[in-house]
């Protein structure tokens, strides 16, 4: 039998497990122990939070590599290529390396059922364990306590921010969400909190675990470090990344160069492009907190703002749309083909009308992200901008289209 390609592996993993998400550590932990991949580096940092996780990973990677550390990163989901999820010393893992890791997992799991995400997490840990890393940076996929990433005992845990998201899994209470996320902490080890007023769930869980809770603007702050250059990263994510760098390197805060932050660009996070002379902003904002930050960054200009939006049906769609409604003058809601959890363009259109969006401009329903983007470009005049937001599955195809054009 010929070895499977990466696309064949991913297709198999998507079809094999009966549920997309199955939280719990027993199954994946058992396979990880057999694979001996629970210590992926000399130092491990686990990062969770409602928003700002990817930015914190990217900032921490840049800061540590600037200090000469050998760094691996695991993030999810990906925008275009699966390989984006596993990065070793700034380079995406190859198809061959991922496939070889998948094959090892397949042979080790026996009759243990693993989800798509659990397979990916184990593959990342295998590749990192073999890469002689100084630091492994692991982004939690969902929640924290029962996420597959939490099988690793991290030396430093980070919670970037807390807001409502994934309520079907985590509940609609901020204290409960905070408790779930703070559970990535370990006894006697630091838990960094990006929110300057942590919810009680974080404070209580850190105390119950016996972790050392360090709060942004109380126990550490951006002001301790060199002047931070202009960047598009959330301030709380940057503060946590700088503090983690300080703790890992042992360098005085004033000696850590912040210049690498000016070069950090996280794909799909307020990413700017130009298509046929039209300025385009791509942002994966898919909850009210993230959309509020996006709206703040979209400084009003003379031209109109046109919005392409596609979202998962289980998200707070109306809460995510509302911060953008005062700014947008033409809406292009879209379905997301092949995503069973996606809201239809009609669903989003109805919510837009109910929220009064039509009073500011017109609404044009579209069958896919690409068709919505093309229609938005056709409607854009001189000085207008197009913003694309709502989901990785909305931004990804459009970003790929822009890069291949």
Summarize the structure.
It is an enzyme of class 6 (ligase). It is built from 14 helices and 14 strands.
Describe the structure.
Pathway: Cofactor biosynthesis; tetrahydrofolate biosynthesis; 7,8-dihydrofolate from 2-amino-4-hydroxy-6-hydroxymethyl-7,8-dihydropteridine diphosphate and 4-aminobenzoate: step 2/2; Cofactor biosynthesis; tetrahydrofolylpolyglutamate biosynthesis. InterPro entries: Folylpolyglutamate_synth, Mur-like_cat_sf, Mur_ligase_C, Mur_ligase_C_dom_sf, Mur_ligase_cen. This is Dihydrofolate synthase/folylpolyglutamate synthase. GO terms for molecular function: ATP binding; dihydrofolate synthase activity; metal ion binding; tetrahydrofolylpolyglutamate synthase activity. Belongs to the folylpolyglutamate synthase family. The chain has 405 residues and is of the alpha/beta class. It has two domains: 6-263, UDP-N-acetylmuramoyl-L-alanine:D-glutamate ligase, CATH 3.40.1190.10; 271-404, Mur ligase, C-terminal domain (Protein-Tyrosine Phosphatase, Chain A, Alpha-Beta Complex), CATH 3.90.190.20. The protein is 37% helix and 14% strand. It contains 14 helices and 14 strands. It has helices at residues 6-16, 26-35, 53-66, 95-109, 116-129, 167-170, 174-182, 200-209, 235-249, 288-297, 317-321, 345-354, 369-379, 392-404, and strands at 43-48, 71-74, 86-88, 91-92, 135-139, 156-159, 190-193, 212-215, 271-275, 278-282, 305-309, 330-333, 362-363, 385-389. The strands form two sheets. The protein has an eight-stranded mixed β-sheet with strand order 4-3-2-5-1-6-7-8, sandwiched between helices. A six-stranded mixed β-sheet has the order 9-10-14-11-12-13. Helix 3 (53-66) packs parallel to helix 9 (235-249) and helix 4 crosses helix 5 (116-129). 47% of the residues are buried.
